[in-house]
Inverse folding.
């Protein structure tokens, strides 16, 4: 874990009492990291065997969710994506009026709408850590899974801004996260191409292999490109289906763009157009290189800690929409100071 993560207590979060509801791969990894960082953390999962696993790993796991979240300062909500909107008000009521709530679901619009319906926008911060694996369950969870991950949080104006700041600071301190501030809709649009469509492509490649004339020969020859391209096809199917259906409109829109580019490649191949095919792959390769070669510029902004925070939230959303992330968030005296890292400059 990074130095930032190992100094969580001195960063002011050592006394936080947290709960993780839904302790699969992501929730379980959050749980284990919080415990490793020295926070007082409890767990709850609807599966009794999973609760037993949590106890076996040294984490208190009461029999009821109400007991798990009572008196907590912070609750992470995980579990199957379709259950989150209905489960949110239940844990909010059991956790008390001052408890900060966040989730780890792979889509944001639906759960954000549920929070609005139930009057929870003053303390619910929609979230999504961008990490995972094809494995599932608490048995597969590790405290390092989310180290340094891009972690989307959705900031809101007014009373919602203070919980966003506090949670941002905790994620930076405990996980060394790169906090990406986005609206729920912006998250769902970006995640469709960054995460959800790749599951469709992986499934298509692995599925087509099964239907080819010689699948065993294909698998024998499969090397890095095939293994990388099909890795997430091994994700539990129910989890993938929930994700795709939960963001269906955005996924289908972005899939259309992928299909169009694939057709451009196919047309250049059919016509033997070496120049066009090379140009398309040069374009694709340049984008792929940006995953590791983007240069970032630090930008520091300060805002008043009080008020309705409209300017602050607007700037935060600009940072996320520009591909940037927060590297620091400090609330001191009457102000809040952010350090954002941007791949290009946004307005002042």
């Amino acid at each position: 874990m990074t130095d930032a993560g190992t100094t969580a207590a001195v960063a002011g979060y050592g006394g936080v009492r947290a709960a993780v509801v839904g302790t699969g791969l992501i929730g379980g990894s959050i749980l284990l990291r919080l415990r490793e960082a020295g926070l007082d953390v409890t767990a709850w999962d609807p599966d009794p065997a999973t609760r037993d696993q949590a106890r076996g790993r040294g984490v208190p796991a009461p029999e009821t969710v109400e007991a798990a979240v009572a008196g907590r300062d912070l609750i992470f909500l995980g579990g199957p994506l379709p259950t989150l909107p209905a489960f949110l008000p239940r844990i909010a009521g059991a956790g008390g009026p001052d408890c900060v709530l966040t989730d780890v679901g792979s889509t944001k619009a639906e759960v954000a709408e549920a929070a609005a319906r139930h009057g929870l926008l003053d303390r619910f911060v929609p979230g999504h850590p961008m990490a995972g694996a094809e494995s599932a369950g608490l048995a597969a969870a590790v405290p390092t899974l989310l180290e340094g991950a891009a972690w989307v949080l959705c900031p809101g104006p007014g009373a919602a801004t203070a919980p966003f700041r506090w949670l941002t600071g905790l994620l930076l301190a405990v996980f060394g996260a790169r906090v990406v501030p986005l609206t729920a809709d912006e998250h769902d649009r970006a995640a469709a191409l960054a995460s959800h469509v790749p599951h469709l492509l992986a499934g298509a490649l692995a599925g087509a292999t099964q239907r080819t004339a010689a699948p065993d020969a294909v698998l024998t020859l499969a090397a890095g490109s095939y293994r990388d391209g099909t890795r997430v096809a091994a994700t539990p199917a129910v989890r993938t289906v929930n994700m795709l259906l939960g963001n269906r409109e955005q996924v289908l829109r972005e899939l259309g763009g992928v299909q169009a580019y694939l057709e451009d490649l196919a047309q250049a191949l059919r016509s033997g157009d070496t120049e066009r095919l090379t140009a398309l792959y040069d374009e694709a390769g340049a984008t792929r290189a940006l995953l590791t070669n983007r240069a970032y510029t630090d930008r520091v902004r300060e805002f008043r800690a009080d008020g309705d925070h409209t300017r602050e939230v607007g700037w935060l959303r600009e940072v996320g929409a520009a591909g940037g992330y927060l590297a620091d968030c400090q609330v001191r005296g009457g102000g809040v100071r952010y350090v954002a890292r941007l791949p290009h400059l946004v307005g002042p």
Summary: The chain has a mean pLDDT of 92.
